[in-house]
Amino acid sequence: MKGKTIGYRLYQANHGITTDHYSNTMKLVLGSLLGVMAALLQAAGLFPGLGYLFSMLATGPIILATIMSIRIGLITYVLTTLLLVIIQPTEVLVFLFTTGLLGIGLGIGFKLLKRRILVTISGACSLAIGIVILLYLFQFPILGPSLTGQLNVLVSMAILSFCLLYSWIWMLASLFTMRRFERQFCVKHSEVE
Fold it and tell me: Are 98 and 57 in contact (CB under 8 A)?
């Protein structure tokens, strides 16, 4: 049972690593800071090579903001989009339908579903829907110019498979990061007492 659920003390009120003790103003400030961080990371996609790696990392702040509160996560998603309109307009569609949408899907999964497989599926479905919308509705060549046009079942299945793998990797990375924060917080919390 322990392996099937996230079940870490992160979500328990008696542990101390919850955002319940933060005021709404503090949550809004943290969400704003995470939004700025996500916008800067996503804007780094302008630079080829290492910039693409930083661009992929923009999912992390959105996941954290959504775990804090779904409302704050959605506000952070909108804030990041508006900041990208100002600092890097070419990355807005990519963020809206891929990086940011994956962060929202995973964050909601962590917040509500709590089972690893359901969190992964939640993130994968949101990312797959975003990619399909970009490819077939907006005709945006996110996967290259040869894949836009008519809906192709084989391409859609490949996209879903990739999204499942990518979402699973982000789910594991998020759990690892949350555990590290939890350990760090426990050590600092015990030193204070």
Answer: no
